Amino acid sequence: MIKDNKNLTDFDQILATRYDNGADFWTTPDGRLGIEKPISTLTALMIISELDVPRDHEALQGAAELVLGAIRADGRVRIAPKGAIHPCHTAHAVTGLCRNGYASHPQVQAALDYLLSDRYEDGGWRCKKFIFGHGPETEASNPGVTLLALDAFRLAGLDAVTPKVPNLDRAVETLLDHWTVKIPVGPCHYGIGNLFMQVEYPFLRYNLFYYVYVLSFYEKARKDIRFIEAFAALKQKLDDQGHMIVERPNRKLSKLSICQKGKPSAAATARYLEITKNLELD
Q1: Other CB atoms closer than 10 Å to residue 20's CB: what's the count?
Q2: N or C: which end of the chain has fewer CB within 10 A?
Q3: pTM strictly above 0.90
Q4: 90, 112 contact by CB (below 8 A)
Q5: For residues 141 and 150, what is the distance between their CA atoms, to the nearest angstrom?
Q6: Smallest Cα–Cα separation from 185: which of 229, 237, 147, 230?
Q7: What tens digit of pLDDT does each residue of 33-43 get?
Q8: Does residue 8 have a pLDDT over 80?
Q9: Which contiguous run of DSSP H or E holds residue 272?
Q10: Which domain of life is it from (predicted)?
């Protein structure tokens, strides 16, 4: 049973959309997991993870089983019957699964192994989809995809170097470097500008709050001046009582109580407090 009545109300709103793409668990009749009308199976898992939904809830289990079933033998995730398979698909899928307690599942482990073996030369992850053409900026990894992947790895307990896990410092470095460069980089042109600097919650897209949150789990980032600057910028977003104010909620989620625009969010504040706890580790 969900304990928080506000979260129950929010979850009811999410559940009300479960058939809107034509089939159950936010998917389409032909099994596409990334159709955002209004939200996809992948996005639903990301949101549910913020609502304290029990792991044995049938909707959570149903959505998770669909995503687990999309993980191929080689670890890549096919989110639609046809079309290219990109690293962002795999990163998005495993992050949603890891957030909901599936990090130790053999198929999730296979997907994580695939991501570790498929890193771009700068240490991050890069989709080969050049919607903005082939400029010099596209020779960088995709910051948004890299952030998702690092989120998945820390959830799976792979944020520290072990004999099994290669050092992820280079992936962390690509994100720290972007704080300085700021210009849109990677084939999908992720940039750091006015929209990035507005607090978004829940964690779905590349933005200041999600950026600082994930990097706070990595020792290399916590000691870096660029991270310290980003954290200072985020800290300025708190109100006088130390509550995190949501500035830019996803418009599809604007009615959820956890992310009301311009209002303090207890759930977002709890994530901010995780950041401060991580900073106490050093």
Answers
A1: 13
A2: N
A3: yes
A4: no
A5: 13
A6: 147
A7: 999 999 999 99
A8: no
A9: helix 266-279
A10: Bacteria
